[in-house]
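During the no-cost extension, the postdoctoral fellow (Dr. R.K.) reprocessed legacy sequence entries with the updated structure-token encoder. One reprocessed record is reproduced below for audit purposes.
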Amino acid sequence: MTDEQFEFLLAIDEYKRKNARPFPTWTEVLEVIKALGYRKVAEPQPLDRCKKNPKRSKERLETRKEQKQPQPTK
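Re-encoded structure tokens follow.
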């Protein structure tokens, strides 16, 4: 976990405790992010899902497909 990720988790935890919100909304999460100093300064970019390990993600997708297939009845 990076220092930046850890700082974010601590900020979310603090928000949840101070506001008695075990599950903050996405709007509230955005407030926390802005409170940390983040601002939109660049043009939007496409989200690259599973960028870190695409092979592992493909394996997960294939496993999910197999689990969803109906089982033959006798």
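The chain has a mean pLDDT of 83. Residues 1-39 form one domain. The remaining legacy entries will be reprocessed before the final report is submitted.
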